[in-house]
Amino acid sequence: MEEMGMTDLQFKSWLKQIIRGLESAKEENTKEETDKKLDELLKDLKEDLQG
Q: How many helices (H) and strands (E) would you count in the chain?
């Protein structure tokens, strides 16, 4: 069975979401808030990998 991948447009959209998450974390005022945002982003990315 062949697995279907993302279209170029879907991949670009997914990358934009990652970039927005990273930029949002970068704008936080404290290291704790930044770490929390990064942890959430990492969790989401790991869930995406698991499918």
A: 2, 0
Q: For residue 10, give both structure tokens.
A: 């879907």
On whether the CB atoms of residues 21 and 37 are closer than 8 A, the answer is yes
Report the alpha-carbon distance of residue 39 to residue 3 in Å, rounded: 29
- Assign 48 to helix, strand or coil: helix
Question: C-alpha distances in angstroms, 26 versus 2, 10, 19, 32, 36?
Answer: 39, 25, 10, 11, 11
Question: Please, what are the averages of pLDDT over each run of 10 residues along the chain (51 residues)?
Answer: 78 93 95 96 89 69
Question: What is this structure's pTM?
Answer: 0.75
